[in-house]
Amino acid sequence: MSYLFPTYARWDVTPSSAKGAWLTDKNGKKYLDFTTGIGVCNLGHAPEQVKDAVEQQLEKFWHTSNLFQIELQEEVAKQLTEASGLDLVFFANSGAEANEAAIKLARKATGRTKIVTFTNSFHGRTFATMAATGQEKIKTGFGPMLETFVYAPFNDLSALKEVLDKETAALMFEVIQGEGGLNEGDQDFLQEASALAREYGALVVIDEVQTGIGRTGKPFAFQHVGLDPDIISSAKGIASGLPLGAIIGRKELADAFSPGSHGSTFGGNPVSLSSAKATLDTVFDDSFLAQVNEKGEKLVKSLKEALSSIPQVKGFKGKGLMIGIELTEEAGPYIAAAREKGLLALTAGANVIRLLPPLNVKEEEIEQAVSILTDAIKEKAYEKTTAGN
Ligand SMILES: Cc1ncc(COP(=O)(O)O)c(C=O)c1O
Description:
N(2)-acetyl-L-ornithine binds at residues 125, 264. This protein is α/β, with parallel strands linked by helices. The chain has two domains: 15-33 and 286-388, Aspartate Aminotransferase, domain 1; 48-283, Type I PLP-dependent aspartate aminotransferase-like (Major domain) (Aspartate Aminotransferase, domain 2). The chain has helices spanning 36-39, 48-60, 71-84, 95-110, 127-132, 136-139, 157-163, 187-199, 270-283, 286-307, 332-340, 363-388, and strands spanning 15-19, 22-25, 30-33, 88-92, 114-118, 149-152, 168-173, 176-177, 183-184, 203-207, 231-234, 245-249, 313-319, 322-327, 343-344, 346-348, 352-355. Strands 4-12-11-10-7-5-6 form a seven-stranded mixed beta sheet, sandwiched between helices. A four-stranded mixed beta sheet has the order 1-2-3-15. Helix 11 crosses helix 12 (363-388).
C-alpha cells in the first residue's frame, strides 16, 4: 500500500546512500548511476565542495524571502550571466517554473501571445509548459490546452515559415531535445530559425534545463551552434540536487519584469544558491569542461566499439556527456536488464537508452558502464531474437 499518487512508474530500487557516481540500495546492492537524478547531480552524489558550502549556509540562514537583499542571488546571477553572455537572472525552483517565467516574460515584453515550439519537445508539467510541450502523451486527459502555443516539426525550416508571423512572441526550443529522444537541432536550421523569428520581432527562448550547466561540454548547449538567445532557462544541474531554476535574459527585457510582475516564495532560496555557487564554480571552469568533452568522446567511442555490431543497435546520439544509444525497438527492457546488472540508465523517447553520467565520472567508471551495458544489451537482444524464432 502506498500513500503516494501513482504518477511515476517507479523502479524496484530504494536508495539508502549515494556518493560520486555510485548509489547503494537498502539491500546493500551498489549501482553505477548514469542517471544522476535525471541530469541533476552533475558533480556526482554529495560532492564535498558543495556539501561544505551548503553546511556553511545552513549555519547562517535558510530562508528569508525575496523582500531582502540576498547576496548569494547576486553572486550566482553573476556566474550565470558571465557563462551565458546574457545580463539578468530571475530565480525559480524547477525547470518548468523557469520556463513559465520565460513564457510570461516573452509575452509581456513583446505584447504578443503566440509561442512557437517544436514537436517532440519537452518543457515541463505545469499548465503552460505542458501546453508548450510538443508531445501528445504529456497532455492526454487534461482537456483543452492554451491555444497560443503552435507546434512545428523540428529541423524543418519551410514548415516553420508557415507558422512564424508578426503575432509571434517567441520561438522556444531545446538545442538537443532530451526527453523527446536526444534529437539534435541542425546548426543551420537553428540559426536560420532564430534569424527568422527575429525578423518577425519574436524573441528566441532556449530551454537549457537539460542541456545546460556543462552537460554537453559547454556551459550551455546554444554555445555549440552559434546562437544568440534573448532568454535561456536553466534548472536540473544548476544546484547539484537542491531545487533551483533560473532564467537568464537580456537587459532590454528588464522593464517587463518590474516589481510585482512575477515572483516566487521559494525562488532563489539561499540554501539552494549556496549549492549552486559551489557547483558552478567547478562546472564553468574551462579545463573541467574540456574534460567533459574528452570523457564524452571516450564514452561514445567505447560504446561504438562494443555495440555497433548488434543488430538492435541503430546508432549513437548526443554531445558531451548527454549520450543516447538508439535501438530498433523499445529501450525499456534493455535499461531494466542493465539495472539488474548494476548500471542505472534512462530512456529518451521510446527507443533511446539515455546516459547522463556525472560530469566528473572517472575513466574506469566509463569502462565499467560500457561493459555492463554491453552484457545487458547482448543478453536482451539474444533473448528477443531467440523468442522471435
Ligand atoms: C528540456 C526540459 N525542460 C523542462 C523540464 C522540466 O523541468 P522540471 O522537471 O524541473 O520542472 C525538463 C525536465 O525533464 C526538461 O528536460
